[in-house]
Design a protein that fits this description.
Number of strands: 7
CATH topology of the largest domain: hpI Integrase, Chain A
Radius of gyration: 28 Å
Shape: elongated
Oligomer: single chain
Structural class: alpha+beta
Number of helices: 17
Helix content: 40-55%
Amino acid sequence: MLTDTKIRNLKPKDRPYREKDSHGLYITVAVSGAKTWNQRYYWEKKEKLATHGHYPEMSLLDARQARDRLKQLVKQGVNPKEQSTASATKSQTFKEMFLKWHNSKKDEWSVDYAEDVTQRAKCYLLPFIGNKPIDSITPPEMRELLLKIQERGVLDTLQKVKSIASRVFSFSVGMGTIGVNPVRDLPSDIFKAKPQKNYATITDPKEIGWLLRLLDEHKGSYQVRTALLLAPYLMLRPGELTKLTWKEVDFDARLIRVSEETMKMKKPHLVPMSEQVYRVLQELSYIESGSDYVFPSPRNRRAGITTNSLLGAIRSLGIDKETFTTHGFRHMASTRLNELGFKDDVIERQLSHTDKNKIRAVYNHAEYLEERKEMMQQWSDYLGMLKADALNQP
């Protein structure tokens, strides 16, 4: 017979194998290391196979209880498979409710975010609780699942998976499928807080000039080189910059109209073009790339370059992660523009930050567009001056 210690010590091999418990119950160890409870039984003189769940989500004791319930059904003349089907019609599984929630929200999300949610669920939730009736999932069960993610040290993932699970359960409460969200009341103190992430940046004017001069030395593809050169001027997030399309570039109005699908905050965003940015984009538009993207991927014209390509370009110039990152352009602009005396509201709106103060958020919706146009031109002129000073240094 099996014990918990023996089960924990079962290691994957180059092919699946089984370890017997008793009365037809055994555990199957997959090549991936997943451990599944199975049971052989006879119905109408034919051997059948039942799957009960995965270890350790289903403990040895739970598996034996499931085995005994199945044996009792057979003894009573009830087909276990029919009983299982009947039970499934009464209670939705977590996976079914996840799909319903996802389908109800995906139109509000970007394609990338919707895919991220699906991938996190597939990795961290569905293999363990996906096939369980959602009304049978308990707070202790969710606590153990989340603590296992924490043990791996991926605290950012922990918070995101916890949020996904909680939102699925809340959706299920709203739909009347369950009465309580088993994640909602888990105390936050049992989980480690995600460390505050500060992106490395440069704010000293002389060092900014050095950085701009160094960016000129990048010898990679024109797509990455141009995106890298424009990044300090546009103040977009790396993912917003790399996904920029030509339909979002309005040369007549001298505005970049970033679509809500691209923006992190899911609201359209305007970036006034300074004279310097306008000239660079005009020259870039003359290149027949056959792509809708301003910075098309050299390998796939139907996609833009990646954020990793920008980061790789910075690293190729000898700039380490403690000195500067791709997000550092935004922090650099925010710091210097504040020190140069521009209004905080104008800066924050240009950075597309959401104001937590609802009254201010409504006011900010006016966009301060004329002030932002002036600020973006002065910012470009300022960067040009710093770069020129750096070039004149011995």
